Input
Amino acid sequence: MKKAVITGANGFVGRHVAKAAADSGYYVYAVIREGTDPIDKLLRNERIMIVRCDMDHYASLPEMIRDQIDVFFHFAWDGSAGSKRGDGQCQLNNISRSCDAVEAAARLSCSRFVFAGSIMEYEIETMMQTEQAPPLSTLYCTAKKTADYMCRTIANARGLSYVCGLISNIYGPGERSPRLINTSIRKLLNGEHAAFSAGDQLYDFIYITDAAKCFVAIGEKGHNNKTYYIGSRAPKPLKEFLLALGQIVAPGVKLGLGELPFHGVSLTYQEFDVDAVYTDCGVEPEVPFREGISRTTEWIRQEG
Output
């Protein structure tokens, strides 16, 4: 049986990747922090074992697992949303812990290390080529880019195959973060006014189960030292996604498009190969955006 380690396995993305990996025939060691309640569904899966280990103690993982691992997926990251994005020490710690994860993977005789990157790595690169002053929150983007480079270097030095999955915007049931889709749906359901920028910049979204399948696929079939874009194959202006969301969640309600200024940088999406995960690994997205929004909205309604 193939075996995988997944850090951050009780996070929004990590727990879905754990389930997708188990469904694909992996025995999964799901690493979660001490004192954190594991997701019930993870505990009910006979192919998933919970391993409690704080990020500061990843060097101890080989002693805790004592098994030969095929793929090590690293999702754990402190301060991926909210005010901690601008906490310098927090983001530096994330870089160090990510490197510790690679070293642990090497000691577990792992064949491949999969790093969860972010599209924001490219946004900060673009911003740094302008005279625009980067806000503190972009320390998260810089840390992700730094960790990606350092983990890749260490992995190659230790004889591991290295793949980065570059996350665009993942959404779906189970998300409770302050990210765009989750907060917009909740505002509209609560009867609050939802204000946005004009939404002319290109954007992309992928439903959580499709994203999880992509990560499992690049863990199995991805090319060494390649970065795979995890998204749909059809980026388009953000306002088109928002208008579709509004029609599903709150028909007839006018969205506040253009009411907020846009201070970020616009990507052209020529920066990535949006087809690579599909051409190299044979994975196609199955859930269209409108269907994904309907499912997510229903989950939020049921959650109350």
